[in-house]
Design goal:
Blueprint lengths: L1 H8 L9 H11 L5 E4 L5 E5 L8 E7 L4 E7 L5 E6 L4 H4 L2 E5 L4 E6 L13 E4 L5 H5 L7 E4 L2 E5 L2 E5 L1 H16 L7 E7 L8 H9 L3 E8 L18 E6 L7 H13 L4 E5 L6 H6 L6 E8 L8 E3 L1 H17 L1
Parallel strand pairs: 3-12, 3-13, 13-16, 14-15
Antiparallel strand pairs: 1-2, 2-12, 4-5, 4-9, 6-7, 6-9, 7-8, 10-11, 11-17, 14-16
Helix pairs in contact: 1-5, 5-9, 7-9
């Protein structure tokens, strides 16, 4: 899984510009499933058909987009002004390397004399090393996207880098498909959604088209295991985080209890997740069409939406194992 993560992290995929990462995921998921397609929103969807009677539709979803920046202006000196796409922490982002969807590199820096507390979208720019506006426009155009340079680094027993949110969820889906060698009696849909970071948009249309009976969403979640963190039961290395609720959804109680029961029966490490902020694709899928039984298995992650997001691969493995056991018993 680590090699898959490194491969996916190396692909750009700012919300609304997911084609590069979609193409890479396609090379992994197509050989493992029966049919693959892209819907009008850009969601990449693959299905592995089951052989049982009275089959259910099971939707497994992870978003493939990432936060980033969009070019809004190029000044006479060739400096590039930007606007955020998704929830950018500008204090964490400044003085970092960025790269455009076209491969143009630059650095994100604040205006001279800007105080730390004032750093925001209107006080930063990207320096691509251009000598003037004409030179910059040869490399960058209005509407181009940039993202913080990706990386994957091992720190002790943890894995650190970006964008773990949510390439690690995509890795989990690919691994689940890889390990479903014996198949499943139900039809399992693997959805790699778009535009989650700007309002859980892609998963809404994908779920409307699939019309699932059950859905499991895979995404990162915050933790309470670092100095100064809000009290929270989740910790990195604590196992698969079974979501009870976040700021946008209350997960189906019957299904979350079933996940807990399956985890206990199969001795899979798990923990409960109640997130008091943020949201995931779970909310939009739950309310699509006439609704479905939607839950989420989260990967506890430190320092979300920075260049040093930190995870423990054992938590990802627990999510994979729990999903496979759940699919056998549902």
């Amino acid at each position: 899984m680590l090699n898959t993560l490194k491969s996916l992290n190396n692909c750009s995929g700012v919300s609304g510009r997911e084609q590069n990462i979609a193409n890479k995921i396609l090379t992994y998921i197509a050989p493992l499933t029966d049919k693959v397609w892209e819907d009008p929103m850009g969601n990449l969807i693959a299905v592995k058909y089951g052989a049982g009677e009275n089959k259910k539709k099971i939707m497994l979803c992870a978003h493939m987009d990432e936060i980033g920046f969009i070019v809004t202006h190029i000044d006479d000196k060739g400096f590039v002004r930007i606007s955020p796409i998704g929830g950018i922490n500008f204090i964490a982002a400044v003085y970092g390397y960025v790269v455009s969807e076209k491969g143009v590199k630059g650095v994100l820096v604040p205006d001279g004399g800007t105080k730390a507390g004032d750093i925001g979208a209107d006080k930063v720019y990207i320096d691509i090393g251009a000598k003037d506006k004409k030179d910059a426009e040869k490399k960058v155009q209005i509407g181009d996207t940039f993202n913080l340079e990706s990386n994957v680094t091992r720190i002790g027993k943890k894995i650190c880098g970006r964008p773990m949110d949510d390439r690690i969820g995509c890795v989990a889906l690919i691994e689940i498909a890889r390990k479903m060698s014996e198949g499943c009696k139900h039809d399992v849909y693997f959805c790699f959604s778009v535009q989650e970071e700007v309002g859980v948009r892609g998963s809404k249309t994908a779920a409307f088209g699939i019309e699932p009976d059950y859905a499991i969403v895979y995404d990162v979640t915050g933790t309470g295991d670092v100095p100064g963190a809000k009290p929270m039961a989740c910790s990195v290395g604590g196992g698969a985080a079974i979501k009870i609720k976040d700021n946008s959804v209350i997960c189906d109680r019957e299904t979350t209890q079933k996940l807990m029961s399956v985890a206990k029966d199969n001795e899979i490490k798990y923990q409960w997740e109640i997130l008091t902020y943020g949201g995931t694709d779970t909310s939009s899928i739950q309310m699509s069409r006439a609704g479905c039984k939607a839950v989420a298995l989260s990967i506890p992650t430190r320092y979300i939406h920075t260049g040093v997001e930190m995870i423990d691969m054992s938590d990802v493995e627990a999510c994979v194992d729990l999903t496979l056991a759940f699919l056998r018993e549902i």
